[in-house]
Amino acid sequence: MSVGHLTYRPGDIIPVNEELFNKFESYRGDRSQAQTMREILCEALGVQLSRIDLSYGHIQKINARISTALEKERNKRRISKRETVRQLISEQLEQVNEI
């Protein structure tokens, strides 16, 4: 049952349950949802970033790398893109909470 949503990019809204939404919000802190999602997805998908990528104006480049890696992961898991993102976020937040 969906009680919240995470926004990765405009138009990319991922419905999540209350537990995942609360974990995400506590991990997010004062960062935007999109910034936090990019950080989590880059780590989960193994997308390497340079200092230039993290500077203002390179978000399109980061999003393109994430989209490419996400499509490969989606094909591996054989589920929708939305469900793949939800699973990756959940897996990464579980790992963070174990540490």
**Strand/helix succession:** EEHHHHH
Helix content: 55-70%
Radius of gyration: 13 Å
Major sheet characteristics: 2 strands, antiparallel
Percentage of residues in DSSP E strands: 5-15%
Report the strand count.
2
N- to C-terminal separation?
A: 28 Å
Stretches where pLDDT falls below 50 for ≥5 residues?
Answer: none
Structural class: mainly alpha
Secondary structure tally, helices:
5
Spatial order of the strands forming the largest sheet: 1-2
Arithmetic mean pLDDT? 86
Explain this structure.
By secondary structure, the protein is mainly α. 66% of the residues lie in helices and 11% in strands. The chain is built from five helices and two strands, in the order ββααααα. It has helices at 18-28, 33-45, 51-54, 59-77, 81-98, and strands at residues 4-9, 12-16. It has a two-stranded antiparallel sheet. β1 and β2 (12-16) form a beta hairpin. α2 crosses α4 (59-77). It is globular. The model has no long low-confidence stretch (mean pLDDT 86).
